Protein 1
Amino acid sequence: MTILGTGAALATGDRVQTGLLVDVSGSTLLVDCGSGVLHRLAGVGRDPTEIDAVLLSHTHLDHVSDLPGLVKARWMIDQSPTQIIGPPGTPDDVGPLFEIDGQSDRVEVSSFETGAKPGDRIEIDVPGTTCESVSATPTVHSRQGVGYRFGTRFGFAGDTEASATLLAFFDGVDVLVHDCAFPSGGEPDNHPTPEALAEALESADPDIDRLYLTHLYPDAACRADEAREIVAEATDAAVHVADDTDDVVE
Ligand SMILES: [Zn+2]
Ligand SMILES: [Zn+2]
């Protein structure tokens, strides 16, 4: 699993928006595709046509804005259509992105049902792939979204406020990548502060080997070491600040 982008909606200069490349059960998935992710993919030596499906955590622009570029690149290389799957509303939300440049026929967008609340477990069938053990759970965010869990190896919490119930969903994964968008001392609002994430970790006490903090706004990115120290006080997991192109599971 490679974290391609660790930034948010406001640019930092060195963190592109959200994207993660996951090799699982013989298939390759791209989770989210924000601005800059297409370039980061090339930067780690991977080809857009290797991607069997794109999973979306939600449809905020910083998670979908490179989708048209990805679809076009795949079509230019080998005419392969792109499969995109996400929570309810995904087809309506991202469909207009492909109306530019005549791309609508080059993409297949579908959605899956989600549970009512964080912690509900939804098994995800990713059509056309050999993926197994992919599950999702609702997040706490301003748009309907999910976090994904890939067996016992890896979890991605998506955009979300800190939630003990959500963290319990990821109990037992080797690696969890979690939103830590705001700097210390702020107010949690659709995203956590380090203090809010620490409090939820202390409450849920999930068994996680390594925790990566991501989705950093510029004012959080420049205080990332402080955030890491605050979160690390609350968990036995090794806590890291994710950087673009970090390989976190090999
Ligand atoms: Zn969002
Ligand atoms: Zn976001």
Protein 2
Amino acid sequence: MAEFAVANRAIPAYLQTPLQVGSLTLHSRVLQSPLAGISDRSFRQLVRRSAPQSLIFAEMAHAGLQLEGRDRWQFLPSEQPIGAQLFGHQPEVLAAAAQQAEAAGAVCIDLNMGCPVNKVTRKRGGSALLQEPELAIAIVQAVAAVVRIPVTVKTRLGWEQVTILDFARQLEDAGAQLLTLHARSRSQGYSGQADWRWIARVKSLLSIPVIANGDINSPADAIACLQQTSADGVMCGRGSLGNPGLVGAIDRYLQTGALTPELTLRDRLQLAREHLLLLWEDKGVAGLLQARKHLSWYLADQPDHQDLRQQLLRSENLSQSLDLLDAAIATENLLA
Ligand SMILES: Cc1cc2nc3c(=O)[nH]c(=O)nc-3n(C[C@H](O)[C@H](O)[C@H](O)COP(=O)(O)O)c2cc1C
């Protein structure tokens, strides 16, 4: 397959081929990241609409709480391919939770070794495992020993210093079948620029697929990152907030070279309305509260609609929010 050039960017031919992750074949090289408090079924449904083949992750789950049955996984056939992400620090607990996720229909188990939040790291989970590589390895081995689906790891460059080169090799040797690298250290949190140069270095060291993550917010970012790193694919995170079509737009670009038009204000309002209704149907009043942040994201960067944004944030019930959105949509229709 020949390379083809779009907008002065050559799209490497390997990006149009399936990605093999152990026994799992992915027909898209663009993934949606797990986002705690965000990537619930409603969000995933909107992402899936334009990205039918992308791997999407459910919200990160605490392995211990999952085993206690506080949450029940239920991955519907329409959600496939969907992965489960777990965090924790006890290999046997993570292994048992992984078996549950496999039984619930997850296509892979992703182990979180990157979350910087104190609540998680205090309990030796998430990015704290960067400081305990032996424990991290024991976790990968324990999980890989009990599930048939691939075990993947999502991590960062290091805790403070960059330690990923050794760590990545160890994870691969332990049985990880894909590594997603968020190119920031734990101490950077979400600030500063992701340093994709480390992704290129890790990619050159490993045989398993490496997925690039951090600051990939457009097709142009994706192709720049892939050209710089030769990574096997990309994962989007915050760029999908208020723009759940981002993964699909990048996938379409990498597969065909076609660029998807930017969302209009009308598109944003329609998406906000749909998202609100999905959350309401799925979670009732709790969903309405969660909808606030999404509504706010849909209207971010819309200087003329900050009043509407504020009104939506203050809205007390579904019909009030729908009235506000419907009135704004009607105005946009008149202007169209
Ligand atoms: C609100 C929020 C929640 C997140 N939750 C998770 C999570 O549960 N698991 C995970 O691996 N990463 C999580 N992340 C990190 C993202 O998946 C991603 O690695 C990071 O935001 C960098 O990518 P980006 O620059 O595309 O956003 C979260 C990030 C944010 C902002």
